[in-house]
Amino acid sequence: MTDGATRGVIAGSLNRIPQPVLGLVSAVDPVTHSCKVLIQPDETETGWLPFMSLAVGDLRISAPPHVGQQVQVLPQEGDAEHNVVTGSLFDDIVGAPVSPATGEVAQPGEMLIQTGCGAPPQDTTVRTAGAATSGAPYWHITPAVLYFGAGTVSGSVRNGSFVVKVGSCVMTLSASGLAITGGTITTDGNVVAQGDVKTSEHSLKSHVHTNGNDGADTGGPVG
Length: 223
Known about the structure:
Blueprint: H1 3-16, E1 21-29, E2 34-39, E3 44-45, E4 49-50, E5 55-56, E6 60-61, E7 70-76, E8 79-88, E9 111-114, E10 138-141, E11 145-150, E12 153-158, E13 161-166, E14 169-174, E15 177-181
Antiparallel strand pairs: 1-2, 1-7, 2-3, 2-4, 5-6, 7-8, 9-10, 10-11, 11-12, 12-13, 13-14, 14-15
């Protein structure tokens, strides 16, 4: 057999081995973490296939796919009867999410989890994603800051500070203490302090009272 003929036989054999394909999720079973897929472009529907997870040990991460989501289907050991959904791909309709904290998509070395981005189209005839959910939660980790939030609530954790903002009320915890601005502090319990409690004008520990217009001021508080 000539070299050309040998190469032809090899190429023919390789072409008969099932290859990875792309498809759209057509059904989802969150309990078994499996889905059915419409293989593109002929839209042949598979049976129930396992959907690969990021972690399945003591640490477990579950993010079931959404109907209409574009995925890759890989034949296990080249066997077309045993397929696995190995991952998802962004496309021209379902793109990478934009972080509410930075106004940008996640950059190399970052991770962004954004919910409520809008459901993918349910079939190939619809070319518009669903409406995004206003105020949906997000979590964005960068090399310097961990951002999180939902609607009017936002927060950040960085080396040296923890900040949470709800509307105009801001709470900042740092090595210098806890600061709250833009809101009122209320409690149904006791307030216990080892040091002083001060307002903008008076000290609870060292304030004095006048004794009428003709008398001297009192001493500081006792007990």
